[in-house]
Amino acid sequence: MAILAMGMEIEAHEFDSVASKLGWEQILKNFFGLTTDQAVVEEEEIKLGKMLDNYEARLGDS
């Protein structure tokens, strides 16, 4: 139960910020006619990949 609670807390504070940045760059900027910053997208995708790998490792142990 503690691992699940920890995962939920991490998601609320870390996953959401990365996902929001990706959503802004890839969806909302296009909607508003702005140019997507590909460097930001690549950086956030790397962060997201590491985060999801960490989730998988932690949840796989439980």
From TrEMBL:
<keyword id="KW-0808">Transferase</keyword>
<protein>
    <recommendedName>
        <fullName>glutathione transferase</fullName>
        <ecNumber>2.5.1.18</ecNumber>
    </recommendedName>
</protein>
<dbReference type="GO" id="GO:0005737">
    <property type="term" value="C:cytoplasm"/>
</dbReference>
<dbReference type="GO" id="GO:0006749">
    <property type="term" value="P:glutathione metabolic process"/>
</dbReference>
<dbReference type="GO" id="GO:0004364">
    <property type="term" value="F:glutathione transferase activity"/>
</dbReference>
<dbReference type="GO" id="GO:0043295">
    <property type="term" value="F:glutathione binding"/>
</dbReference>
